[in-house]
Automatic annotation (TrEMBL):
The protein's name in its UniProt record: HTH-type transcriptional repressor KstR2
GO MF term set: DNA-binding transcription factor activity; transcription cis-regulatory region binding
Domain HTH tetR-type: 13-73
Annotated Pfam families: TetR_C_24, TetR_N
PROSITE patterns given in the database record: HTH_TETR_2
Amino acid sequence: MATRIVEPEAGPRSKRAAILAAAVDCFGETSFEATKWSTVAERVGIGQTALYHYFESKTHCLLTIMRLELQRSHDKFTEATEDVEDPTEALRAAVRAAYEVSDHEVLQMRILHNHMDLLSGPRKSKREEAERVEARKLVQLVERDWTNLLVRGMSMGVFPLRDAQLLGASVLGLIVSVWRWYRPSGPTPLAEVSELIEGACVRMVAT
């Protein structure tokens, strides 16, 4: 299991959570590239130099957001499936859990999946690299979550025997593709999207 980076204690005067929330809003609304680091500081109500007490760069902040979102995704999967014995119902529960999110979490997922390439190569900064390495471990953990669920279903004879790793990657790819186009203010409710993707995933795996 991936080891979490120990989060700094958030004292009553800590601005870390506020910085992360403001960065998610900025990166999600106007893109990471177009967001000025000073804009994040303005939203939090602090000077730009104060940001460096928490994050050494805008990229360091982005990598932290990505790691935290991956950890949240893994935790949601585990919570949704750990007590569900039937593999088909576990699959349905996992898909539904992936879409039980707030508008803020929608932005987090959009940021994550728009910047996955950032995890592919090492960073020169030690703090950025530490976040990148942990995020990569979490990517692998999330992928194993889905693969292991399918392996369990195949071993029980519920799902047809196939390449579970490839099938798991396909299911996960379908689920996360939604975050590239879905907007909370758009015409399609997320509950409708969830129902559609849930059915598609079950058909993909079970037939």
